[in-house]
Each structure stands twice: as structure tokens, then as C-alpha cells.
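Contributing new records

If you add data, match the layout below exactly. Sequence lines come first and carry their own label; structure lines follow with theirs. Keep one chain per record. Anything else will be rejected by the validation script.
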Amino acid sequence: MNVIEGSLDGTGRRVTLVVARFNERITESLLEAALDCLRRHGVADDDLEVVRVPGAWELGGAAGRVADRGGTDAIIGLGCVIRGATPHFEYVAGEAARGLATVGHDAGIPVIFGVLTTDTLEQAFERAGTKAGNKGWEAAMSALEMMAVYREIG
């Protein structure tokens, strides 16, 4: 039996983080944790790129442009969508997921979904480092592992 697993060594890997500015207090915390994780696992500062977009809706479009341009081994989409009193949440969260998934399917490189979808601001803060760990760190760990898996698969 052949088992393919990814390591967490980011040495020599290039990563682009596409980050929504909307809910910036949350997304900046996600970004800081993701960058910390990538650096601690060997990704050099010169191999990190941050692309800022207005909100979660725009993550897929920007990620697609990055993938088309090439020059990166993984893309991490970071954002935060908090439920409100209107159906806006479903549209934005759904499009963020669909957009990043489409890029991931078509790009041939890992595209990681690091978008918080929460009911409250408190839940978002919890997932951005106060109680439930930091989902930015977790997204970076997924990117590291998936880059290695893709490399092993060929």
C-alpha cells in the first residue's frame, strides 16, 4: 500500500495570502497568525505575498488572478463574514467558498479556505485567537501540508 502524506516543511515554497479588509480586526489577526505559522515552518519572507481585497466576496476573483499569473505554490484566502439580519451573509459566504473552491479545482495548486463564517462578532474573535485557537494558523498549516501532498502526487 502506498500512503501519501504531506510534511509541514515550507522551505523554498512560495505562498500568497489573499486577505479581505472587511472585518479587519478579525482578518488582521488571521493574517498575523498565518504568517507566523508559515515563517516558523520555513517559508522565507521573500516567498510570502499578501494581496488585500475589499471583502470576502472578492477573494475568489483575486485568487484566480494570482493562480493565472503563477509564481506561487499555494493560495490562502482569509476573510470573515458575520451573520446579520438579512440574507446578505448567505450570499457573501457562499460566493467566498465557491470562488476559492473553483480556483482550487482549476489552478493545480492548493487553495485554502480560511474564511470565518460566524453568527456573532464574539464567535469571530474566538476563532481569531482568543478561545478557539486561530483559524489563520490552521489555514497556513493546511497549505503547508497540501503543498507537500501535491508535490508527492506529482
